[in-house]
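JOB MANIFEST
job_type = single_chain_structure
chain_count = 1
residues = 456
[input]
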Amino acid sequence: MTRPAWPLGWLSLFLPGLGQAARGSLPRGLAVFAAVASTLAVTVWYRQPVWYLIPALLWLWNVWDACAPAAGAPVLPAALLWLAMAYGIGWQVTEIDPGALFRNTERGAQIVRLLLKPDLIAPRQEILEASVRILIPCGPNPPRAANVENGVSLAISPDCAGVNEMIVLTADGLWPDYPVELIWRSAIGSYRQLGGTGNELLVLPSDGQGHLTAVFAVPSNALIEAGIDAAPDRHMVVLTQRRPLGGYTLSRNGAFVVQGIYETLALALLTTVLGAALALPISFLAANNLMGGHPLTVGIYVLVRTVLNLLRSIESLIFGIIFVIIVGLGPFAGMLALTLHTIAALGKLYSEVIEGIDPGPIEAIRATGGTWAQVVRYAVVPQIVPPFIGLTIYRWDINVRSSTIIGFVGGGGIGFFLFQWINLGDYRAVSAAFIAIAVVVFLMDFFSARLRERLQ
């Protein structure tokens, strides 16, 4: 005799999935409960009354499913309802506003125009540069703010000052009747504008005798990197004059781009080599087919896999922020962050390669009484060398991209310069950095693909 379906429907009306579970379909019942509960919880959390329609419809579908024959109701309507809820709430959470793309078209057009003029090369010119240091803020017994460099005598009065205080710079020995660019350089090496608006520098002409007097305020953001309450440190005012020589060469920002790209490639290479070297022995401990069969080795396997999964779940950018705090700004912090993430990623990938090898040689060496080390040496290593090399090259490719982002938190490389140029609004330099990054990524993709083809 066929049991009536309506009692199951009443059970599912009381609690989604309960009727399915009573019918003997426990996995289906749990899935139905999770679908209804998740949509209801999201609706309650984001407090949008209109979205209550989705969990209500899913609840009704759940009753229909419980009353249906053994195969249940069609799943497609429920799946579409759940996806509609996820997409709709996702649209709300991400605050999508297409109109924002068109509300400030003038500013967008200005940025695009600057991006189309990359600051990578410039006319060849002779450069005369000199600098003088000044203590910011004032401390006890400040050193004299004077210097002689490249034949230029510089002096600042007073010898120390606070943020936004006025100072007087005098210079002798400059090229007569040529413009002089003045830039403030903070204690950590970042550049600050001294005058003008936007990307304009403070530019003043020297007189006929090569003399210059400039009065300006200490930049309000001169102490941002060190913190307002930091101890006094010596900042620098840099003077630059330029005379045309004919022809073209790398611009100042172009030189920074080349330096940043070199740091990025070096950072990626060092982190990949060091990370691969450390991940290699760890991967053998994280391979189930090598560590099974004994409670101690199984415990080591579980511990190592857990640690690798935890490290991989944290983005390298977060590690970068932590290491910048520990060791300070610079490529070393970026190298530590990327190396840690590379160890976790390659350790996981290497172990999966080991778990997928042919078990025949392993069983044969174990059958002859071979030790664990002999199993690894003669049965595992010959099978894993080509895929390990391919994965390492692929990780190097990833690290080149990641090292660019690491620079945004002070981890060195091209990203460090790119972050400063974006803050300064120097989009011509940003465009040059984009071009350099694109060229490097293209070349890396090309050569790494060819190397992986040879290894297959």
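[summary]
The longest strand covers residues 233-250.
The first helix runs from residue 6 to 14.
exit_status = 0
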